[in-house]
Structure formats: C-alpha cells, structure tokens
Amino acid sequence: MPENPKKFYLTTPIYYVNARPHIGHAYSTIVADVLARRHRLLGEDTFFLTGTDEHGQKVQRSAEAAGIPPQQFADQVSATFRDLWDRMGVTYDGYIRTTDERHKLGVQKLWKVLEESGDIYLSSYTGQYCVSDEAFVDVAVGAPCPECGRITETITEENYFFKLSAYQDKLTDLIESGKLHIQPDTVRNEVLSFVHGGLKDLSISRTTFDWGIRVPENPKHVVYVWLDALANYITAIGYGSDEAAEQANFARYWPADVHLVGKEITRFHCVYWPAFLMAAGLPVQKSVVANGWLLFEESKMSKSRGNVVRTETILDAFGEHYRTSLLKASQAEPEKRDCDLFAADVLRYFLLREIPFGQDGSFSFDALITRYNADLANGYGNLVSRVLKLIDSIGGVPEPGMDDEAAPIRRAADHSIASVSLAFAEYRFTSAATEIAALITAVDGMLTAVAPWKLLKSSEEAEQLRARTSLHTAVEAIRLITALAYPLMPHTTAKVWSQLGLGSLDQAAGRGELKNLTWGGLKPGTKLGAPGPIFPRADKGLAQIMSDMEQNRNAAVGAEQTEVNSGALTGSFLDVTTNPHEPSSKPESTTSEIPAEPTASGANPPLAPQITIDDFAKVDLRVARVLVAERIPKADKLLRLEVDLGFEKRQILAGIAEYYAPESLIGRKVVIVANLAPRKMRGLESNGMVVAASVGADGAPVLAGFAEDVELGARLK
Ligand code: MSP
Asked: Which residue of 374, 406, 526, 598 could cross-link 397, Cys pair, CB 3.0 to 4.6 Å?
C-alpha cells in the first residue's frame, strides 16, 4: 500500500434482529464484499462495516413472542448474522451492534450535540405509527401504512422532535448539486420529490416502550430507532469516544464513501441522515447506492410473506455437491470451509450476474443451477481445465510465439480490462460479469479454431508453434479473466490462480498486482500448480434438493427459524402455510406485524387469521403407528418413517432427526396429515406429514400423541 493511500469507507444497512438472515440480506452483504475487495485491490485503505440493528418496538415484540429478554434475543440473532457472514468468507472490517456500549455512548453524544445546536425540541404528538417500518406515517386513523400495507397504530406521545423542516433547502442543494450522490436515478428522483413536497419535523423519541437507548437527561424517552440505527455509521468508527486512537479513526474514515442500502430505506439515508449530520456539524456521506429487491415467485422475499430462501440452504447443497463431485473425481475430500466458500462464490456470482444492480430480480433454484452450469461449469471451469491439461502435457507455460495469432484475444482482453474496471466503478456488476464471460467465449472460439490438441500431435514445426501460441494466449487470458473475476468469486478464482502456478491470489491482490492488469504477466516456463475440478457440473436435481431442504427447514422442524407470517401458528403441520414455494394466500397481516418466533416459557405467538370449519375439514388428520424409523444418508435432519394407518401403510419423511432417535419412535402412535400431496425429498417420496408442536427458542418439534389408546386410522376433527 502506498504511504498515504486513499481511504474507502463502505457500509451495509445494519440488519434487524427480529428475523434470521435470508438471501435478501446476503445480497446487500455480498455486494459490499465485492466492492470492498475491489477497492482493496486498487490499493485503497478500505473499511467495510456491517452489523445489526437491535433496538425498537419490533425487536422488543419479537423477543416477547420468543419469551426471552430482548438482549438475549438480540445476542442470538446477531450471532446468526455474523456466523453466516463468516461462513461465507465476507471480509467485513467492523461489526457494529446497536446494543454495543460504544454505540450507546456515541448516540447519546450525538443527541446532546443536536440539542445544543437547537435542532431538538419537546412537544406532544398524535399520529399513526407503523411498527413494522418503525416510522410515523401520514395516514388516517386505522389506515394501512403506505409503504408496507400493514395497519398502523394511533399513538399519542410527548416526543422530542428534530427540526427537519429547517433543512429543506440545504437538502435540496445537497442532492441537486450531487454533493450527495444518489443512485439509481429513480431513487434520486423519488427522494428529491419527497423533499420538494415539504418536510415536517420528525419525532425522534418514544415513551411507549423502553427497548432502546435512553435520551440523556430524560430517561423516560428512548431514542427513535432510526436515529439510533443511522448513527451506527459514525459510532462504529469512533464517534463519541474519548480515546485518541478512536477519534483519529473517525477523522480518517468519515465521511463514508458509500452507504449501500435497500431501495425501501433510501428516505432514511438520503433525507434524515444527512439532516442529522448537518445539524451535528458533521460532513455528510458522499453517496447512497440502492439495491433492488430479490423476489421469490414475484413478491419481495421477506420474513412476513414467509417466502424466504435461506443462504444456508445454498451453502449446504452446493457445498455438498462440491464435496461429492471431488470424491467422485478421486480427489481428496475437501474441508468444510472449502465447500462453504465454493458455494458462497456460486451464490455471489449468480446474484451479481443475474440481477442488474439497482433493479428487482427473481430468485429461483432452477435459474441458479442453469446459470451455474452455463457460465461457471461449462464456461470458465471447462476452459480452465481444458487449457491447463494441455499445458501440463507440454511441461509448462509455452513461449508466446506468433504474435499475429494472439492479437485478437489480446485486444479482447485489453477491452475487458477497461470495461470491467468501469463497470465495477459504476456498480454495473452484471456488465462486469458479462464482459468476463465474453472474453471466455472469445478464448473458447480461438481454441476451437486452432484445435491445439490436434496440432500438438503433428510433426510439423509450424503446427506445433501454432498450438503453443494458442495455449500461451489462452492461459494468459485465463490469468486476466481470473484476476478480473476475483472480487466476484474470491475463493474459486484463488484456486485457479494457484493452479496457474501463481501462488496466492489474495496476496497478489494485497500487493497491488491486480490493479493495473496488462497482457503478458504469465512467464513462459511457469510450472502449473496441482490441478483439480473447479466448478463440477450440477445436475438439475440439485434444484429439487435445495427446494426440499428449504421446505424441510420450514415445515418439518417446526416453527420458522427465520420468522413467519404474523399470526401463523408455529405448530409444525400448520407451517405448510409458510411454504416458501407457494406465495402466501394470506393478506398482509391485519394488525401491526408481530413476528411469530418459536415459543418458549409459555409465550405464544399470535393466532393465525380465522378460517371456516370447511377450511379445517380439508385437512385429513389421522392416527398412525410408526413401524420403521431410520436415518437418511447425508440428510442430517430427516428421518424416513413407515407408518401404519390401519387401512394402509405409507412412507413419510420427517425433519425431526436432530430431536428424536429413530429407535425411540418405533411402535409410537403419531398424528399425520394424511391428505398432503406427495412430494420427493432426497429422492424419496413423502406421503404426508407428522404433526408436532414447536417449542423452545429453537422451535424443537414435540410429536403430538394421546393420553388414551386410540385406534389406528382414527380421524382428528
Ligand atoms: N435495520 C434497518 C436498516 C437500518 S440501516 C441504518 C433495516 N433492516 S432490514 O433487516 O429490514 O433490512 C436490511 C437490508 O436488507 C435492507 O437494505 C433491505 O433492503 C435488505 N433486504 C431485505 N430483504 C430483501 C430482499 N428480499 N431483497 C433485497 N434486499 C433485501 O431495514
């Protein structure tokens, strides 16, 4: 790194701890990691911050529903986020939790500064509050929130207010002048029209609950959760600290270069946050860059719709695919870390290649497999393995040879280097990936035309030379492709790099060797590293496996471990209503959303919306006896049961393997949903579902049974 490198401070939104992470959250974090790696390789002193947003009524209610104190609840969920980022190899430099002491002190300091600047006053207010969005909204009593459609609550409170109205002109100037860059334009325009529409003063304290940071000198009030949350961007890097090192850190990194945010939270970042900063006499962040939403079956993937896909599903399934493929290819068994990072790269590539950044995009397991096979297995992976095998057969990287033959690829590579660099700088990740793919196609085309595998068999020197030239050209292009793709797929590109005999890609990036890429870096005679499959082709069945795993996590293990629809019962069988593969037929909740976490200590989630007796009659619940219970190889959570209904026997797969030893179930009477459509999991058909209550903080299943002896096949009504 140069003496005084340029700094780059980048943030993700901090995630609410009322829901466990899904791939919508992973999306923001992945984009941030790609950017952080890109800026680091450019030699910039990069600080990448992420963390969790842990205060507010929503979190308090989730903790109550789970029956545990909010701090304990926040500790648990925050750890699941952090563990997931670690599992995916996300290179965050700072992890802030709004319950951190340093954050609380920083927020209180900010509050005092705002008070001293005369921007805070105390007043009484009655308004409609949306608990889900943690914001007052301008609607009639009982009306739904215009943002999320959930019913608002009427709240009258003595509140502290922030004089947002006084910042209208300054905000307009800030945005119009581009001093605050907002991307994409659609978001910028929305924000501007919101500001032009007139700004009302903003309520910034609450007295109706206490899960928050106390207002200094008036502890009856807690600080509004968005003021608390936004301040993470400064408290994490030292604002409010008395320590000189922390203060120096703040002076070094603030203002942030980029706040990456989802498109629905741009108002908070582009209006409230700059106004707070201006009022506190601090510089405003340089840019706010918004991502669109990941949709699943046409609606936003979200905990409240129950249509989430968990990142763990993809990591588990693709990781296992990688492991078994390596074993099949007689390679050494990879470490779990290797499998996780491979799978994380697949997800990274898919999300950034498939969805033009800034727009909404659909996620599906089928699309994931199709894209993986097309671009990574058949494209990049296949090119690398073909070329490296041929190069190995001739004892190492050949001399460059005839320049004319190499020229078109060299030109294509120069073009790719420039355009990929620009694409990253403009957040056009899809273009970066397609530029890289175009270079792969060009090299493939050149190889097909030259056919070095044939020419190498010839005894003519000219043909040998041509073959060697084409291989030199191809392997040099692979080096550049690999360097360009590094921020997108840091782990697999590092493997290719070492197979090229170039050592550690991370270290090369750290030394600035990926910054100014030019043709010709691969020295003739370079000995290749150990070969090995990079992207083993995936069978379409992997999509079904992931879909089953997702279903299984949701349905069989009981209460949603992410979070389920407001009012959804947590009992296992009713969780079929939260099947992520079927859009919820329920309207958005009719009361302000109270997330149903697994129950503990007798705290129950709210009731599901009413159904008629006819709705209930559709579900055929029967008594059955377990005849056979056994584990399913490589499915940690599933048991295969054979049950006797009296009038027939059938096979059912149940996600209870972590909680019940198979032998303890044999002979036991259970309740099953007997008319559930059959479905395949792990290649086995499941004909029904075993009913269980979901208990404790982890939603452990407890099988339903009877105190009296009940005959087999009896129906529950
Ligand atoms: N806690 C606030 C942010 C405070 S920042 C000072 C919050 N948290 S959140 O957990 O609800 O959302 C965090 C981020 O995840 C947001 O940027 C949001 O857009 C993103 N996503 C949540 N679901 C998503 C999708 N389905 N798709 C893409 N991003 C999504 O808001």
From this structure: 526
